[in-house]
Amino acid sequence: MILYKCRLCDKKNMFKFLDLGFHPPSDQFKKKKEIDFPTLYYPLKVYSCKSCGFKQLNYVVKPEILYQQNYPYESSLTITGKKHWKEFADSTVKDYNLAKNDLAVDIGSNTGVLLQSFKNNRLKIVGVDPAKNICKIANKKGIATINSFFDQKAVRKILKIHGKAKIITGTNVFAHVHDLKLFLKNIKKLIHETQGVFVIEVPYFLNLVKNLEYDTIYHEHLSYITVIPLIKFLRKFNLEVIDIQEKDIHGGSIRIFISGKGNYKKKKSVNKICKNEIKAKLNSKEILLDFQKKVTKNRLYLISLLTRLKKANKNVVALSAPAKGMTLLNYTKLDSDFLDYATEKSKIKQGLLTPGVNIPVYSDQKILKTKPDYALLLAWNFSKEIIKNNTKYLKTGGKFIIPIPRVKIIKRVK
Ligand SMILES: [Zn+2]
Question: With 60 as the cut, is the pLDDT of residue 72 above it?
Fold first, then answer.
């Protein structure tokens, strides 16, 4: 579905500032026997609204296509991730005086890592997630999870069983929702009127531009969040932003705390972030088109590096196969001519082929067996942890290529 008007303000006044071409959905890994099945490609272009400044894709791939039965992302896999979710729950419980048996609802709860931390704080918990396989894993672990999108039906079910929620979280979910008006209507129904806090955590567009994180653009991410347009939008629902915290995860995210107007005192962080956004001129066509230029250059540089390596008969593989890596591979068209294989910790992706460029995925151990000359680090946001986990590979002469923000080679320091 092509989007002709802004998701937030409904004005038909948008301009394109980044064109990454056509891509298959980043989670559509194929079985090997399906290699000759056709792949559907959808446009991946980002627009900015001239009226409110909101950044968004102009094409919405149907959620039924994107969030399939077997969604291959498990959020609990990295140590960095686990620590992050624990800090999230612990600090929120403390800051908003959440007490025993207060209800915490997590939207897009995945395998329940965040909810587990709320549970450890003695809160009542409910998760909502559309992926069947992921829900099974969560429920098995004792994290009560409703297998559904966050819709009216799910809200009714939660209200009936548990009543209103003191805390609702949506981490890396808000940017995935097409109908944000309906989404917020449902939040309003579920949230406690005077004490409820709705917390979203999203990759921050300001960092995306600053650090050239264009690979965080994929079809699931329909919106690229800045705070100023969001504040205006929330006003329509009598909601306001009360605090914003900047976090390192996923290349720089922001955690936005929202509540009913007047419920809590607004923290200084809100104005500070708004000022930063104005200073960064994120609505300026010139700044945004300059970003596109830098993205193109990054692509050309990466292609020429890999071309050079392949001409010199070097073996190159991709280390980790996150959704963002699929944007990078399909944008740069780095296929099996360049990359022998990809590795991935998540068992769900192992044995499959990456979307579009069809690179076979194996477990992380393969890299020690085949000792490739170079490993392209697609999950560069976890590079510290991944490099640490692979010191053996470095010691035996292996080199890492970090693609973003600048193409960089990391080798063992002698
Ligand atoms: Zn707008």
Answer: no
For residue 105, give the nearest of 199, 40, 36 by alpha carbon. 199
Range 79-280 classified under CATH 3.40.50.150: yes
Q: What residue has token string 């672990």?
A: 141
CA of 329 to the centre of ligand 1 (A): 31
Ligand 1 mean position, distance from CA 283 (Å):
11
- At 71 the pLDDT is 59
Mean pLDDT of 380-407: 90
The CA distance from 19 to 239, in Å, is: 33
Show me where the domains of the chain are located.
Answer: 14-66, 79-280, 286-410
Q: Considering only the top CATH level, what class is 286-410? A: alpha beta
Ligand 1 centroid from CA 52, angstroms: 4
Q: Please list, residue by residue across 28-44, b when 16 or more beta carbons sit within 10 angstroms of its beta carbon and e when fewer do.
A: bbbeeeeeeeeeeebeb
10 Å CB burial of residue 254 (0-12, 13-18, 19+) is buried
Q: Which two tokens stand for residue 328?
A: 């990078």
pLDDT at 70: 60
Record the tokens describing residue 227, joined without a space.
């705070």
**Nearest residue to 244 via CA among 275, 221, 223, 280:** 275
What average pLDDT does the chain have?
A: 93
Mean per-residue pLDDT, 69-82: 64
CA distance 71 to 78: 18
Q: What is the pLDDT of residues 209-248, one digit of tens each?
A: 999 999 999 999 999 999 999 999 999 999 999 999 998 7
Which phi and psi angles does 356 have, rounded to 5°?
80, -65
For residue 401, pLDDT over 60 is answered with yes
DSSP SS3 for 115: helix
Quote the ligand 1 centre to 229 CA distance (angstroms).
7
pTM for the structure as a whole: 0.89
Q: Within a 10 A sphere around the Cβ of 59, how many other Cβ atoms? A: 16
Q: Which residues surround ligand 1, an ion (CB under 5 A)?
A: 6, 8-9, 49, 51-52, 54
Round to whole Å and give the CA distance between 368 and 22: 34
Confidence (pLDDT) at 345: 84
DSSP annotation of 378 reads S
Radius of gyration of the chain (CA): 21
Q: How far is the CA of 260 from the centre of ligand 1 (A)?
A: 22
